[in-house]
Amino acid sequence: MRFTAMNRGQSGKMAMAAAALSVGLLALTGCGYVNAQQTSHQYAASDGTRADVGPVQLRNMLIVSGGENQPGRVIGAVYNSSSKDVKVTLKGAEGAQTEVAVKQNAYTLLNESADAAVLSTSGGKPGSLVDVQVTEDGTNVNKTVKIPVVDGTLKEYAAYLPGGAPSESATPSETATPGETATPSESATAAPAEGH
């Protein structure tokens, strides 16, 4: 085997190729260094909001209402991480209030509860955020939480509207286009039967 010595031009090309390869690898792997890791941040990846009030954790909280001055049902999950049963009070606009009992080290799913948590008024029109004061009676901690108001436009929430989901007759029907006239049906224009 015979090795030949590299001349100055060849060794320069090799050094540049190695440097380009190093920069390329650094560029491909460096994006993890510059961008924050998304899994290290907790956030509400849903329509609802989240908050912690003392030992109580609220998750995916929403108010489902037909309108601004109409009743609103509060849905979501309420977790109690304490060793005592607690009562959570939700106070909305214009004195609207509801209470939720949560057992020790347990949770209550408000959307599955037979005893719906309903505020007498939602406090805002669908699409808005409303201030709700949340108090838990175990440590008497309270906090004002902004909770989104949604309506029954999305079928996932229609069943939670206070008073039930809108009926099928409440959905819009087809309308005639301008210039169209109704034509009588054949049975309406038929001549009366003979002898009548």
Automatic annotation (TrEMBL):
Location of the region described as Disordered in the Swiss-Prot/TrEMBL record: 161-196
Lineage of producing organism: Bacteria, Bacillati, Actinomycetota, Actinomycetes, Micrococcales
Listed Low complexity bias regions: 180-196
Organism: Arthrobacter globiformis (strain ATCC 8010 / DSM 20124 / JCM 1332 / NBRC 12137 / NCIMB 8907 / NRRL B-2979 / 168)
Keyword Signal: yes
Entry keyword annotation includes Oxidoreductase: no
Position of the signal peptide: 1-36
PROSITE patterns tied to this protein: PROKAR_LIPOPROTEIN
Polar residues composition-biased segments: 168-178
Official protein name in the record: Lipoprotein
Keywords annotated in UniProt: Signal
